[in-house]
Automatic annotation (TrEMBL):
CDD domains, A to Z: YkuD_like
Keywords from the UniProt entry: Signal
Signal peptide: 1-21
Region named Disordered: 21-69, 81-104
Source organism per UniProt: Streptomyces lycii
Protein name: L,D-transpeptidase
InterPro entries hit by this protein: LD_TPept_cat_dom
Amino acid sequence: MAGLTAAALAAVGFLAYQASATAPDRPAQKDRPSASASPAPGKPGKPGAGDDGKRTQAVPPRSGSGERVVYSLGDRRVWLVGEDERPTRTYEVSPSTVSPPPGEYAVTSRTENITGSDGVPIEHSVVFTSVDGVVIGFSAAVDGSTPAADPEQRTGGIRASREDGAALWEFAEAGTKIVVVD
């Protein structure tokens, strides 16, 4: 029952935020900082979910428990979830052409600087599986780009902004749980 109450309060808070986000005495949504640029409440100095309404974006259901990285294939979004079940950060990604099947994985390797499977120099590569010989992992292009993957290439790089890639790098050490959902 407490879970339902918390969910209802979160939904009401989000709706109240949306209603006030474009009120005359507040800056328009586009003028506000991005979700990936602001610290999370109660976590000074740590990257967080920001105050643009995305902190209330719920972690997908059936995405496991405990500290983990959640990657939603359908939403093209990643959540960094703390031990307290609260997301410390959430952000959009550009998916690879080869997707991992939904399931639970763990970080198998990390490389600070390397060339991606698409030939682009990348940083903060966090690998968690392979599919048909294609290595799958999160990364950020050194040039900061996050273009859609070329459908003619078989690539496994799930690309984020450099800032979000750095946050994932700090969060996901070897062995960290990765949960992929539809």
